[in-house]
């Protein structure tokens, strides 16, 4: 109960007071930490559980695999997959679904498909996971194909499945298909759209530059607009430079989520991109007066089955000078290939040189340099960022993937980005 309510301290106190703890108790505690975003503690508890001689069960493996997925720990995930096979566990049910999601979250789509093909029971949750896998990869057409295949196998889509297909259409710019499925959900399956479905539709229309339609969709929703709907519109306004509408969207987010700093940050960036630094600073000052702070960008990278965390201009870098030299060298090579730093994204009214310096020290670039210095040549680099990747870093990663001849897989707050040979799987449809 405490774990489900996010009261980790209370849950942990009860857990430690128990004289007898079985696998269900340990797994419940792991799930509580996973729910609160503390994936590392999941592995700490796993080690402690093993020391007490308690064997894992299928529910434990599901939690462990979800932790691997959240941190994009492909190496660890493969290790636990092998343990599942050795232990004689079935890969149907929660274990199979967790395996599928782990591989897809890590950008290993072929391995996710192999898990899907080996599963005997394709229930709605399994179909949802494989559809989301292709949606995140940017292959909306394949997501649609799988959705239709699911129907031919007489598996009725659920409300959650429709979230998956609408997300796939949104990420691939399939506006006509997305609108069709939104109507089908209501007319053919009697599923009442939730705020999450409406948010997907706003995102779909906004990404495709249909800003009028996206805003009308919010205003015409029979449900009260929530922060997700307004945030989707705000992101689209930033992408297409609609400051006036962006201000309305930002106000909508603030009304729904008064403690969220994101709308202040996004709108201030829009002002800065147009050279309106006074307006941008006024907005940031208003945010500061409310006690709101920008969430710092943090990037995690897995190198040799070990996780490393990086903040902008910081990180566990014993060879920081070497990393910065490498980044400078890569940046120069990228510029020779047409890369131009997008300094309009920097909020501060500072010189062009300082703006480029700020961009070059984003957390994902620090993680990239660390990965290149400490991993085997040719191996893919896998990262997770707690925020959306900025347009400049996205463009930079495309160039670098071609320069170094290696795949760069990054999961940000919004979707998966698979950089290879100068191209991203999202087709620049951020």
TrEMBL record:
Keywords: Repeat. One of its GO terms (biological process) is RNA modification. InterPro entries: DYW_dom, E_motif, PPR_At4g14850-like_plant, PPR_rpt, TPR-like_helical_dom_sf. Residues 338-429 form the DYW domain. It comes from Ceratopteris richardii (Triangle waterfern). NCBIfam families: PPR. This is DYW domain-containing protein. One of its GO terms (molecular function) is zinc ion binding. It comes from the Eukaryota. PPR repeats lie at residues 22-56, 123-157.
